[in-house]
Amino acid sequence: MALHWIDKLAVEDDGDGDAVVCVHGLGGSSNTWTPLALGVLARHRVVRLDLPGSARSPYGGMPLSIERMAEAVMAVCTRLGLTRVHLLGHSMGTIVCQHVAAAQPKLVRSMALFGPLIAPPDAARTAIRARAAKARSEGAAGMQDIAQTLTNGATSADSRQRTPAVAAFVRESLMRQDPEGYARSCEALADARAAALERIVAPTLLLTGDEDTVAPPQAVRAMAERFGAPAGPARVVVFNRCGHWTPIERPDECARELRDFLAGQR
């Protein structure tokens, strides 16, 4: 595995074959994709980046936005010579992926979006801004509170009880974020605008959990209908007893669906 620093972003590049570019969500990192990278994606070239202000990629003092994150993903593709890629996104990363697919339709071969949303609803935007303020004002102590709250609220009861490592992963992922970088990422998500979905031509798979409060199944099904020709409406998969951290909570099921989806794009 090679670790690149591209415009101060940490980018992991591993394997050969069709390129898959993985974009994590708010409070995530390249490790969000480890269960899939070690399994179903083993025969692909897997590129995993830490978004600006997240994990190993420092917040550089410039304003963050979904558009800037999308530009960062496209810049990584350019620097690595990737001209056709499959995009994987989780949560906030699904919005970033949609912006990339709308801006550069020829670049994106397909999209698999986990816990997907087009943009946060108004009530969620208010809560996300409050979370940004807490992270900024309270620092590490605030991040610990945020991590505990989100671990309990964003994963299913079944995941927490049957697989304690899931809760540990989510909590650790959030607690390791830089408070200011996390706050800026929250504000970028709170200000997120929908991508021009009519420009997206890539086949799309949407995966969510039946207990996902961020991307509830009814909202994801409505989202699927907004993807049009030539690919047609996106396909939706809903996992039972699963919350918002789908690749971590249901890695085997995600791998099975992703394997079938990517096989259909050859």
UniProtKB/TrEMBL annotation:
Segments passing through the bilayer: none
A molecular-function term among this protein's GO annotations: hydrolase activity
Domain AB hydrolase-1 as annotated: residue spans: 19-251
InterPro entries given in the database record: AB_hydrolase_1, AB_hydrolase_fold, AB_hydrolase_sf
SUPFAM superfamilies in UniProt: alpha/beta-Hydrolases
Keywords of this entry: Hydrolase
Name under which the protein is recorded: Alpha/beta hydrolase
Organism listed in the record: Variovorax dokdonensis
